[in-house]
Design goal:
Length: 394
Amino acid sequence: MKITTKQILLIAGFFLIVLASLAFNPFSVNDQGYRTVVQGINGVETVRFKTGMYWAGFFSKTTTYADVVTVQVERLEKRKSDISYFSEPIRCQFADGTYANQVGYSVKWKLPNNDERMLAIHKDYREQSRLAASLADYSKECANYSFQLMDSERHYSGGKSELAEAFKFQLRNGQYIIDQQEKVRIDTSSGEKIRSYENNPRTNADGTFILAKSDVQQYDIIPNFVAITLVEYESVVNEKLKAKVEQSTREAIAKQELVTAQQEALTAEMRGRQKVAEVRATEEAAKIEAEIRAQAQTAVSKEQALQAKFQADKALAEGKASAEVARLKVSAGLSPLEKAQIEKDTRIGVAAELAKVKVPQIVIGGGSGGQGADAMDAIGVNMLLEVMGKLEKK
């Protein structure tokens, strides 16, 4: 079977149509997490935000952008695979003139879900790589301005969160316009004038920051994630911080030693007070014990004196009674022998009664701590002796 020229032309035309359809496919697909700018054959541009297949039109041109453009500035070994722009760490200067030799950060920029703004972005940048490079440059400027707001020591001593906040604020709202202020202080030891410089954002009368706006704010591109991932100081900063840490450590040790010494002194003082209190308590107890014993001895002595006086009174009464009996007998005319016998018996009786009385060996007047009898004992003895003397006179 022979193929005619007409058939060959028809077959060629068919393949040309297929190839043209493949080359100028009027259908396109928008993947999840992306948006597509479609430029039709007539030059009109539209934005496709929805995912899936859609009619783009013959001979249309499509440009794809990620919903989130990620800028990563880090060491090469930490590079991620799903980023839009990557750069190795940058160098930033602190307010005191020292440097952070390596600064790394990550910013995720969310593109607007608005046709007008998205088309404006596409008109200025034409593709995502150029947009990502511009966002990276803006991020770098904001990082440099943020580092200029503080010195290295302040950053090391707790200013990391403050730096991160200043970085994020500028990325979202615009860049600070920084004013430098000179400060002069007098060194207390040498009397020398020391000048220092402080950078502060310029503000309006109401206290709000004066900001330099950029395309980020114009196109409503939002940094929805910001992180400073690396700050590596230069050697001079590390040496200064090392000296600062050593000084702080010495001060902390000195303060601790002072607290320990004060505690030990307080403990010693308390122990001394406790010892004095113990001695005072012991002495007070001994004093009270001595007073109680003295009172007991005084009571015993008084009781003994009362008993002695009672015995003396008894003996005196009995002696007087015997003497009275004898006197009556004499008055009644007793014989000399009977009189002598009565006197003898009387003396013997008085002596016997006197012998029953416990006469103190030593009579001591005075304090309560003495061992002798008191004046009452002496009176009783004296009365007995007077009785015997009167008997002798008779």
